[in-house]
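Q: For a teaching handout, I want to show students what a protein-ligand complex looks like in token form. Below are the inputs, and the small molecule is adenosine-5'-triphosphate. Please produce the holo structure.
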Amino acid sequence: MAVSKEQVLAALAKVGSPAGEPLPDARVLSDIVVADGKIFFSLTVDAAAVKAWEPVRKAAEEAVRAIPGVQSVLVALTAERSAGAGTRGPQPAHTASHPQRAAHPADKVQPGIPGVEAVIAVASGKGGVGKSTTAVNLALGLRDLGMKVGVLDADIYGPSLPKLLAIKEKPQTIGGTRLKPIERYGLTVMSIGFLIDEETPMIWRGPMVMSAITQMLREVEWGKLDVMVVDMPPGTGDAQLTMAQQVPLKGAVIVSTPQDLALIDARRGVAMFKRVNVPVLGVVENMSYFLCPSCGTRSDIFGHGGAQREAERLGVPFLGEVPLHMTIREKSDAGLPVVATEPDGPHARIYRDIAAKVRDEIKGATRPAPKIVIDA
Ligand SMILES: Nc1ncnc2c1ncn2[C@@H]1O[C@H](COP(=O)(O)OP(=O)(O)OP(=O)(O)O)[C@@H](O)[C@H]1O
Ligand SMILES: [Mg+2]
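A: Here is the structure, written as tokens, with adenosine-5'-triphosphate included.
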């Protein structure tokens, strides 16, 4: 039987704060994360009062553990430096969604995006491996699973969403300050490419990358989303770090081609997300094998299977393999992504399978990352 947040809150109402208030009224509770019978949340309290709160934390854990169907409970006590006044609102969801993460400087600056349940990044170490194609089709696959999905094109050097989704219109502004994203194929979409001319040369520096991405995250009316898929620029630079620091990323999907070189880059991508404590949801092998469009014969031109082996070696899930196929390229480049325009075709099925795995990984993204050391 699934445990609900309401049950957890009801159990916590019987636990008192040091001042005698029921916990849900004590303005210390983070969002409560319930995943397959596992419950996580945190209590954010004044640093000076930590000793008094420790028994409360224990009591909260015991109260929640007693709910039928609960398998494990993790309640973290998060101390804040005394701000003088004793009032504090509830903490953003991220403190609870990554309870096992080691403390990281980025943790302090990660408020969630209002209305957005989970943000995931689609990344790779090197360019041209099919991140954008994967991001769009993965987003559509998640849409097909009944989720409300947004796509953010964080590749401000070479935005691809205008082309991949054939979007020419400019986003409207709301109240002169906020931007309304574009809707396409049931996805809520934003790209810097909607705002600038394709011909404009872009010489972005680190701080400008930061502010451009921050604006697209925070000054866009994303509305309510189950998941936001972020198409990352290639590499492990400023944009990736900005994302990791600006939003509580649920996890990252790493796209790789089977060739060794791309895999070395993929490894670098995996290592980078691990370093900033973002769970790697898994690896997708793109252009995995060649399917002849006329005879249907499969050839493993790049030495297929490398990404799967690599995923095993790195201890991250393998999410699936996408063939190198003319249809994927033609459709992608014509703004007609296969999952939207050939929903019954074999490629759409592959992307939907990957999406289902990603969805499951998002749910389980609270588990600790495997402990491995990678040289990047
Ligand atoms: N599975 C596939 N089969 C055939 N063509 C593909 C496949 N995946 C991607 N492509 C094509 O490869 C090219 C590069 O893909 P894409 O733009 O998605 O890569 P990217 O990793 O986002 O690149 P960049 O690093 O420049 O952002 C595109 O022309 C795309 O249509
Ligand atoms: Mg791209």
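A: Two things your students might notice: The pocket of magnesium ion (ligand 2) is lined by residues 131-132, 155, 160, 231 (CB under 6 Å). The two ends are 43 Å apart (CA to CA).
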